[in-house]
Amino acid sequence: MDGADAEIATLLRVTDVRWTDEMPQSLATLSRVSAGQSLRFDSGQVEIVFDTGVELLVTGPAALTIQSPLLVAASQGSYTARGGENGKGVTIDTPATSVKD
User: Fold this and answer.
1) With contact defined as beta carbons under 8 Å apart, do 60 and 47 qualify?
2) Any idea what DSSP says for residue 72?
3) Which is it for the CA torsion 31, 37, 42, 44, positive or negative?
4) Do the Cβ atoms of 94 and 75 come closer than 8 Å?
5) Do residues 70 and 48 make contact, with C-beta atoms less than 8 angstroms apart?
6) Cis omega before residue 95 (within 30°)?
7) Does residue 21 come out as left (phi exceeding 0), alpha (psi in the -120 to 50 range) or beta?
8) pTM of the full predicted structure?
9) What pLDDT digit, counting tens, does each position of 60-88 carry?
């Protein structure tokens, strides 16, 4: 398994999510997420917990790609992150700015 396919996070909570047609499958609570994986949903909220301890709450409509355990590329949505001790340096990149904890 190369780095791009490594599972690095878990969808801890999926609340009232309506996945876009671009998603090949709907993801449920406790689904694993891999580096390089994109998530797109029209409404609802997902809580992602990375294996590093970083917690990310995303409110839709949202479009994001999980780049690595400390990097998320976000083009749409509302994001709240909590880094924790092992998550220092978590970064959310958007078209307008980059926010680093």
Assistant:
1) no
2) E
3) positive
4) yes
5) no
6) no
7) alpha
8) 0.89
9) 999 999 999 889 999 999 999 887 776 67
